[in-house]
Amino acid sequence: MKTSFFIVMGVSGSGKTDVGKSLAEHLGWVFYDADDFHPPENVVKMARGIPLTDSDRAPWLDSLHDLISSSLKKIDLVCWHAPCSRNDIVSNCWKAMTM
Q: Consecutive sets of 10 residues in the chain, 99 residues long: mean pLDDT of each?
């Protein structure tokens, strides 16, 4: 069975969640908001306005990778656009899912 998913990416406040929820509802898919997968330490930093580093993002991206890799259902994931240094993880998720 080939797993299908969408990753909706964009800057803060661009409507990713609204688009993602609408898309998932229309397709009958499960919706996930990537922000819900941040470890508590990242949530605290973001609430204080402290930018996350690549090291901070690593466990979050690992969680998203695990979600996509292990999903047997069609999913719709809302996610901000990762900096170029982390795009390899998103790209690798895509490659793993389309093989």
A: 71 88 87 92 94 90 83 58 52 47
CA–CA dist 21, 85 (Å, integer) = 28
d(CA 10, CA 34): 12
- Write phi, then psi, for 7 (nearest 5 degrees): -115, 115
Which one, of 47, 29, 30, lies nearest residue 38 by Cα? 47
79, 34 contact by CB (below 8 A): yes
C-alpha dihedral (17, 20, 26, 28), degrees to nearest 10: -110
Reported pTM:
0.66
**What does the alpha-carbon distance between residue 32 and residue 38 come to, in Å, rounded to a whole number?**
12
Residue ranges per structural domain of the chain: 5-98
**CATH class label, 5-98:** alpha beta
